[in-house]
């Protein structure tokens, strides 16, 4: 809340601070979703006290859906290995939080300790290794960090014409 008393309500203050979300903030106050430090819901008449803490969980943005499946290749007590499709983030960041491989797999298999042993870029498809238990995390992550395990990247690309106009590999 503001540093000084203004006489504004919590809702007025929030709507002034986040005008693009005013309608949704009103819905959240009406639904009892915004609470003070004691966990008591604020209402439309609650006065904003200077430097008071309130708890508001803004709605996450709508994330793009990746139109490919996340297939499991292997699972045991220590590892979960998947075939990560193109365009799926490995871990939550930026515009991809709930629709990241880590969050999707934690929810699908109820594995709160799941952690990636390595990462693949969002645009890169390939085999992705996760540790299932916290005790297994460090040893597997160190294998990748110390380059004991090597990754191999293959690319599929169209055949480009060389500078003479012939396709590479064609006979003169």
Q: What does this molecule look like?
A:
With 172 residues, this protein is α+β, with helices and mostly antiparallel strands. It has 2 domains: 10-55, no CATH class; 71-145, Pseudouridine synthase (2-Layer Sandwich). Helices cover 22% and strands 13% of the residues. The protein has helices spanning 10-17, 22-30, 101-109, 134-145; strands at 35-36, 54-55, 71-75, 79-84, 115-116, 126-131. The strands form 2 sheets. Strands 3-4-6-5 form a 4-stranded antiparallel sheet. The protein has a two-stranded antiparallel sheet with strand order 1-2. A hairpin with a 3-residue loop joins strand 3 (71-75) and strand 4. Helix 1 runs antiparallel to helix 2. It is elongated and about 70 Å long.
Gist of the model:
The protein is of the alpha+beta class and 172 residues long.
């Amino acid at each position: 809340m503001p540093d000084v008393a203004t006489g504004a309500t919590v809702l007025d203050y929030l709507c002034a601070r986040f005008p693009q979300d005013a309608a949704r903030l009103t819905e959240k106050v009406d639904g009892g979703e915004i609470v003070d430090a004691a966990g008591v819901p604020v209402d439309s008449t609650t006065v904003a006290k200077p430097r008071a803490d309130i708890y508001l969980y803004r709605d996450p943005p709508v994330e793009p859906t990746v139109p490919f499946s996340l297939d499991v290749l292997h699972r045991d007590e220590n590892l979960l290995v998947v075939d990560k499709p193109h365009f799926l983030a490995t871990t939550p960041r930026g515009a991809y939080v709930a629709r990241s491989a880590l969050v999707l797999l934690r929810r699908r298999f109820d594995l709160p300790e799941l952690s990636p042993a390595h990462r693949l870029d969002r645009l890169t498809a390939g085999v992705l290794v996760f540790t299932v238990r916290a005790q297994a995390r460090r040893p597997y992550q160190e294998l990748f960090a110390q380059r004991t395990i090597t990754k191999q990247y293959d690319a599929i690309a169209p055949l480009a014409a060389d500078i003479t106009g012939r396709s590479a590999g064609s006979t003169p």
